[in-house]
Amino acid sequence: MSKIWREVFDASTGSEIWIEGSPVHADSNILLTVSNSRGENTALINAQGVVPSKAKLFVEAPPERTAVVPVARYEKVRSALKWTGYVSAAILLTFSFLSFTGTLKARIVLTGSMKPVINAGDVIITTSPSHKAPKKGDIIAYTARRFNGAAVATISHRIIGGDPIKGFIVKGDSNPSPDVQHPGLSDITGVVILIIPFIGNLLTPKALFLIVPSLFGFWLILDAMKNAE
Fold first, then answer.
1. 29-36 and 18-20: which strand pairing?
2. How confident is the model over 18-58, as pLDDT tens digits?
3. Dihedral sign, Cα of residue 178, residue 179, residue 182, residue 186
4. Which sequence spans correspond to the domains of the chain?
5. Which end of the chain has the lower number of beta carbons within 10 A, N or C?
6. SS3 (DSSP) at 42
7. Where are the alpha helices (DSSP H) in the chain?
8. Does domain 106-196 have CATH number 2.10.109.10?
9. Lowest mean pLDDT across 65-74, 152-161, 180-189, 201-210
10. CA distances (Å), 23 to each of 39, 45, 162, in order?
11. Distance between CA 123 and CA 128 in Å, rounded?
């Protein structure tokens, strides 16, 4: 009589295992568990046949043997977020130190007067004029003043002429004419050295009100993935 071969796991599981014959004793039970990149596959084999099952119903296996796909993915995401957090913290601490010493400053641009180089919502990083002398072609941040000398706002425009003694001629790239004020070195708060697109739009109260709960929700999802069976 020919031997009967039976497939233990479905082909879609990625575990191709076949058995032949039948248990010697009618009450015998064999528990077979295979773990791979697709997760855990377990089958209970007895005289009645092959029954799909879960290893946790019979034994307590070590974590490395029962790590399923969602948990593996969670670990990768958690590791990526952890290192992203470390890098972000290091950048923030470095920038905080440089900002405290007056080496660097950051501000959010509110208008489009410097389009297309700088758009509303971009963040510009500036350094003090004492570290980088402003010259023609540079974009500077300067304190705009009324005719009576009172400060009005900080404007970021490009130097198109002038000098430190008589004052610089500045103009927004998308403005039709230069600014009325010719800022001197005492009015210049910084020279732009870096432009970070868009991120300023995420730092408004309304955006933070949406982002913070979203991050909390994302964290809950990751936690659920960690505990997924």
1. unpaired
2. 777 666 777 777 777 777 666 777 877 777 777 777 777 77
3. negative
4. 5-67, 70-99+203-226, 106-196
5. N
6. strand
7. 63-66, 69-100, 205-226
8. yes
9. 65-74
10. 27, 9, 97
11. 16
